[in-house]
Amino acid sequence: MYGAICLKYVSGAESFEAGINHTFWPHQDDGFRNWLGFDPYYFGLLVFGFFSTYFSFGNIENAKVLQIVTTILRFVVTLLMCSGALIYIGRNGMQRAPLFDWSTQLKHLAQVFGNTTFVFIYHHSISGIIYPIRPQKDVKAMFFYSNIVGSLFLATEAVLAYLAFSGLSNACVKPLNWPAGVPFEAHYPCEVSGLYNENFLDLPGIGQICNFYPMLNMAAVPILNITLRNNLLDVIPVKRWLRERNMLLFLLDDHKNSIKGLWSCILTIPVLVIVCLTRDV
Known about the structure:
The chain is an all-alpha fold. The protein has one domain (2-277). It has twelve helices and no strands. The protein has helices spanning 2-24, 31-36, 40-54, 64-92, 102-105, 109-120, 126-130, 139-165, 206-211, 221-235, 238-245, 257-277. The chain starts with a helix and ends with a helix.
């Protein structure tokens, strides 16, 4: 779960940086950086981290409205990404890579690992989310149909990405290892970037909405923070150690939302250290 949270922090901060820069400085790679005076990635981390921890002051049910809004936006953005891929296919034709070109496929094992991590965290929050549902007999049908709908949406998005972008080699966004001082110009459409939403930056409206989408993970991270906090405090006897040593006893009063939030902040420190040291989590 720490790995998943790190991935969301990095993707949120990078999409924030790219979205602001492309919106206000479309022809300057470093426009946002020059305006801020420092690397905007860290500003994105600050914004993302603030809201992610702010919404983790409490339990999962406290984020109900946030989750409903996020769910709606996820469907909207997925539809926009599918529409964007269709626009590129209609404009430039299909750009398919060989399906079993393993030398190419092996380069993307990190992305496969990252997506697999997200799949495995799917079950962590289910028990807390479905407990308040009444009548409980409707839960099975709800999960059955929602998984079918979600799978169809994601499969469609993936196939369209393969058809529209997989055979391209030019980059949408300046790579991290790009030589300093060498000008970079994006040519769209382009290869699938580390953040897929960046493939649509040049499409008015669609590009802006898609590009800011990973920042909406600040609505999903509180669920992970809350689940991680509850699991760690159950598994690691840290509260017992504090009680035995008569230290920081106010942290034991964790039925209060403010103390729950403080625990979330404390347990987020390793994430901040990792994402400040590397973006390639």
